[in-house]
Structure formats: structure tokens, C-alpha cells
Design goal:
With 259 residues, this protein is mainly β. It has no helices and 21 strands. Helix content is 0%, strand content 48%. It is globular.
Length: 259
């Protein structure tokens, strides 16, 4: 069923489990827009080592961020958490944000735009977010489907050791596409403003108006393993714009876009 919530800051070590992405829906009913709808925040050394599974998170355009993983401390970040078979939808600026999140797993996650909010980003990794593994992540939301950057305005940037770019994250079977009814212009599938040692394996990137993947700065990022680039409605758009160091592309192919 659907569960109406204004906002929920999920306590550490509380496991949230529904009966399916279409069956168990957490729906935002806030009267005014708020900074986030669902938050998993590290408050102690337990570091929110818990899980959310088998449910949908629908912010409905009532929160800037639909699902925020962050911190309330200057010491601990979310770590070794698990997110399995969930849908995230309806953020105004971002659907899913990992602020310094470490060593967590995301399996069968859909990031959608059924609410039609047109977020700037579908998924955002910030501030030393590292060692996270994504399996079967589908992003069909955002002017940019996926973005990585350092952002001092988020609390994760206050943690010693996380004052750096996202690094060492791995994406297996990633799909970045445009929401079919979107009225906004998608610019990127992936934009690494800054990031290091991030790996994309067997991914499908549908380009935006500028490119499929842009790497502004960073080193040793890799795209490999039968990854494909598709033009969507754009023609002759570059597959990759690389400003990074030692970027590796291996086993990739493209259709109707530049190499």
C-alpha cells in the first residue's frame, strides 16, 4: 500500500522492508517544499549500517532530494548500508544523493521521473563517496542522469578524509536514459566534474545534448566491458569528452554519435 509521510529521518540500525517497488510506496505529503524527504544519516559510529529494500520512495516534487544519504557528525559517514529493489522518484533537484557514503551496495535500483519534476540530477555522488557498488542501476531522470563532484555545502565535506572527489565506485549494468515524457533537455548521461578510479562495466549511455560522458577532471576512470553509447534524438554528439588523466575506454561501441 501507500504510506503518507511528511519527512522521515530513518534511525540508525532500523531496517526498512516492503513487499515490492510497486506495492509499498512511501509518499511525501509535505505542505511546502523541504530539503529532503527520506534521509539515512550517520549519527554515531554505527554509521547507519542498515538497509532499505522492496519499496518505492516518491517525493512528489515536495522535496529537493528524494533520498539523501549523509551525516549529522564531523566524524562518521553512512557505510556498509544496503539498498535493494527500490524506486526513487520526485526530487526537485536530485532523486538520490550519496554524500560521503562509503562501501555500500545498491542492487536493482530505479531512479525515475514519473512525477515530472525534471530534477537537475538523477543520482549524485559527493565528497569522498567511495567504494560503493551498484548492480543493475537504471536512471531515467535528470538533466544529468549521474553526476560526481566535491561540494562543500553538504555536511559530508566536513569529515576529515572525505574532503575529496568521489572515488573507487563501481557500476555494473548501468542504464542512463531520458524519461520518455520529459519536457526538459537532457545534457549528459554521466558528468564527472571531479572523480577518481570510478569504473563503469557493461553500461548503456543515451547521450544528452552535449555528450554521453563528460570527465572534467580526475584520474584513472574506466569505461569498459561491452559498454554502449546511443545517440537518442541527438546526432553526431561526442560519446566522451575527456578532461581527465589516464581515462580508460575498453570494449565500447557507439551508434550515430562521434567516437
Amino acid at each position: 500500500g501507500s504510506y503518507a509521510l511528511t519527512q522521515w529521518d530513518i534511525p540508525e540500525q532500523l531496517m526498512v522492508k516492503g513487499t515490492g517497488k510497486k506495492n509499498s510506496k512511501l509518499v511525501c505529503t509535505a505542505a511546502v517544499n523541504q530539503s529532503w524527504f527520506i534521509r539515512c544519516a550517520a549519527k554515531t559510529k554505527n554509521q547507519w549500517q542498515s538497509a532499505i529494500s522492496d519499496c518505492g520512495i516518491f517525493a512528489g516534487g515536495k522535496a529537493n532530494i528524494a533520498l539523501l544519504l549523509s551525516t549529522d557528525t564531523t566524524t562518521w559517514a553512512v557505510s556498509k548500508a544496503h539498498f535493494n529493489s527500490i524506486t526513487v522518484d520526485g526530487g526537485i533537484t536530485d532523486n538520490l544523493v550519496l554524500d560521503g557514503t562509503q562501501n555500500s551496495t545498491f542492487t536493482d535500483v530505479q531512479v525515475t521521473d514519473d512525477a515530472g519534476t525534471g530534477p537537475a540530477r538523477g543520482v549524485t555522488l559527493l565528497n569522498g563517496a567511495a567504494g560503493n557498488v551498484f548492480h543493475n542501476l537504471e536512471i531515467a531522470a535528470g538533466v544529468k542522469n549521474l553526476e560526481m563532484r566535491y561540494d562543500s555545502s553538504y555536511p559530508g565535506a566536513s569529515i576529515s578524509g572525505l574532503q575529496q572527489a568521489p572515488n573507487g565506485n563501481t557500476f555494473y549494468t548501468l542504464i542512463c536514459e531520458k524519461y520518455s515524457l520529459a519536457v526538459y533537455t537532457k545534457t549528459h548521461a554521466v558528468h564527472i566534474v571531479t572523480g577518481n578510479n570510478n569504473t563503469f562495466v557493461n553500461a548503456t549511455f543515451v547521450t544528452g545534448s552535449l555528450t554521453a560522458v563528460a570527465i572534467d577532471s580526475g584520474s584513472y576512470n574506466e569505461i569498459s566491458g561491452n559498454t554502449s553509447f546511443y545517440s537518442g534524438s541527438a546526432v553526431n554528439i561526442p560519446a566522451v569528452i575527456n578532461g581527465g588523466y589516464q581515462t580508460r575506454l575498453d570494449g565500447c561501441f557507439s551508434t550515430n554519435i562521434s567516437g
